[in-house]
Amino acid sequence: ETLCNQIAAGEVVERPAAVVKELLENSIDAGSRRITVSLLQGGRKEIRVVDDGEGMDADDALLALERHATSKIRTAEDLQTIRSLGFRGEALPSIAAVSRFELVTKTAETVAGTRIEMEGGVLRDVRETGCPPGTSVTVRDLFFNLPARRKFLRSVDTEMAHITDQVLRLALAHPGVHFVMSHGGRETHRFPPVKDLRERVGQVLGTATAASLAPFQLETPSFKASGVLSPPEAHRNSTRSLFVTVNGRPVKDRLLTHAVLSAYDSLIPRGKYPLVVLSLTLPSEEVDVNVHPTKREVRFRRPSEVTQGVKEALSRSLLRLQK
Ligand code: ADP
Ligand code: MG
């Protein structure tokens, strides 16, 4: 079992940023309004995510750490109706398998909270504890039991760049959630909750950048697309300026990237990229997020309808910009 977890962990947990992503997504799934991410040594020494979400009772907390126990896919129908961001029930056991892991959690209904300690996938301690409602997960010494993997961790700066990228992407996807991030005890980012995407873009990418962006929007019977985009002349050097989310989940999907870039076709030099924040919302039966272990790619039931729609929405907005 432990070995199985360690192997599976390799798929989900490639580096500290992957841990941050999974923990943040869980916090968002739990309806949190405020989430803090604290890191030591680029996440290799410690990653702690604290939220004020719905929390878990003792039984659920233990279940969450059992491989596949929490997978919400039980029937073929479940597959059609996966609503929440996560569904595989693999992240927590995988992370716990390759770290010194602590989970402290409490629901609003119970008096006492639960604290669970694991080491390399082995349960070390479970006890009641006093704590506020919500969940706190601490991941220490990532890959301490997999030296070969630990060797592959890069410099603190590189790991921090990956972590920051994940945090910014999730912050852009959830403007109403308060995010705070710190490294080595020093606050690096703080995004208080705001009403709309443009305000969040201002917090994350700067108010000058936000002011230069134009909105776009499209609603069809099968999906909704909205966001902001940069004028063609403000192009950048990398695809990292494309922020795409599907049902609240940041993705890197080839079809969607292509759809976005095709709206700029011939307006931007080859090898340059626009800044686009695109948020797609579809009923769960229109999209399959169960394609890749880290859920970066998605599969649409009507891909050409979505990509055409996205391209047209962006093109219209670009035309208005040029007038
Ligand atoms: P998944 O998110 O795919 O269900 P995870 O391993 O990430 O699998 O989480 C397992 C389960 O633990 C979740 O389904 C959820 O019920 C619970 N859980 C995890 N993190 C939190 C959290 N921060 N707040 C409340 N519940 C959580
Ligand atoms: Mg999850």
TrEMBL record:
The entry's keywords: DNA damage, DNA repair, Endonuclease, Hydrolase, Nuclease
Any one GO molecular function term: ATP binding
GO BP term, example: mismatch repair
The DNA mismatch repair protein S5 domain, residue ranges: 201-319
Superkingdom in the source lineage: Bacteria
Any Gene Ontology CC annotation: mismatch repair complex
Family: Belongs to the DNA mismatch repair MutL/HexB family.
Free-text function comment from the UniProt entry: This protein is involved in the repair of mismatches in DNA. It is required for dam-dependent methyl-directed DNA mismatch repair. May act as a 'molecular matchmaker', a protein that promotes the formation of a stable complex between two or more DNA-binding proteins in an ATP-dependent manner without itself being part of a final effector complex.
Protein name: DNA mismatch repair protein MutL
Residues of the full protein shown: 9 to 331 of 604
